Amino acid sequence: MNRHLPISRLAFVASDRPEAMEARENLTRRYGDLSLDEAQVIVALGGDGFMLETLHRTLSQPRPIYGMNRGSVGFLMNDYLEDGLLERINTAERAVIHPLSMIAIDSQRRNHRALAINEVSLLRQTRQTAKLSLSVDGTVRMEELVCDGVLVATPAGSTAYNFSAHGPIIPLTAQVLALTPISAFRPRRWRGALLPHTARVTVEILEADKRPVSAVADNYEVRDVREVHISENRDVNLTMLFDAGRSLEERVLAEQFSA
């Protein structure tokens, strides 16, 4: 898309929430509705979960996505207003993010590949705590972590599950990833690590038959994993649009000062 040409061709997608579907009807009457192939920008109507769904759905034909909140959580969304939509989109600020690549090897030695925009998380499947071994760039950094799980988060995803697990919020330009334990039991005081964005993380599941673990890349889950490899995929560029003065970078910064 030529950034110097005004944006006028929009495609609208909506979650299945009634308010999102109603908003889509109202907006398409005013601004038209093109196919994803024809549109310059995709307007996503829903919450943060729907924004992630839309980003995943359009990986093969990436378009800038402008979200408007018609859901329950709207950190990745702009405020919903029907007036002046084209003006808002044409003056919007861009956030380009890179997802994580996950390769999960299950108990049958099958490889499962997926991309994660927010995080890759490993979670215990039963009442038994998980036992994990953590390696970074081929070097074992923690021989045994006893926990409910562990996750690797992108800067864009650092305010989501990662933050709820007491991980750090990461500015988008920091070029680091968060490696965050989930309810660590041993070592009890370990709070995680910040890794360079080029790091390749390997998680090996110890005592996997007794302590089964699942791996989740955003909303794609693999159960009974034995080993998981996680790294940033710089070949994939995803673009989200935010109203002027309300960039994703500003939102991430402001979140660090919220009560």
Q: Could you write a compact summary of the structure shown?
A:
With 259 residues, the chain is an alpha+beta fold. Helices cover 16% and strands 39% of the residues. The protein has 2 domains: 10-97 and 237-255, Probable inorganic polyphosphate/atp-NAD kinase, domain 1 (Rossmann fold, 3-Layer(aba) Sandwich), CATH 3.40.50; 100-232, Tumour Suppressor Smad4.
List the helices and strands and how they pair.
Blueprint: E1 10-14, H1 18-31, E2 41-46, H2 48-57, E3 65-69, H3 85-90, E4 93-97, E5 100-106, E6 111-116, E7 119-124, E8 130-136, E9 139-147, E10 149-153, H4 161-164, E11 176-182, E12 193-196, E13 200-206, E14 213-217, E15 220-222, E16 225-232, E17 238-242, H5 248-255
Parallel strand pairs: 1-2, 2-3, 3-17
Antiparallel strand pairs: 4-17, 5-6, 5-16, 7-10, 7-14, 8-9, 8-13, 10-11, 11-12, 13-16, 14-15
Q: Give a quick account of the main beta sheet: strands, pairing sense, barrel closure.
A: 6 strands, antiparallel
Proportion in helices: 10-25%
* Percent of residues in beta strands: 35-45%
In CATH's first tier, which class of the largest domain applies?
Mainly Beta
CATH fold category name of the largest domain: Tumour Suppressor Smad4
Basic shape: elongated
Question: H/E element string?
Answer: EHEHEHEEEEEEEHEEEEEEEH
**Taking strands numbered 1, 2, ... along the chain, how are they ordered across the largest sheet?**
6-5-16-13-8-9
Please tell me the CATH architecture of the largest domain by its name. Answer: Sandwich
Rg estimate, integer Å = 20 Å
Spans of at least 5 consecutive residues whose pLDDT stays below 50 are none
Number of helices in the DSSP assignment: 5
Total beta strands: 17
* SS-derived structural category: alpha+beta
Give the count of structural domains. 2
Measure the end-to-end span.
Answer: 40 Å
Q: Taking all residues together, what is the mean pLDDT?
A: 93
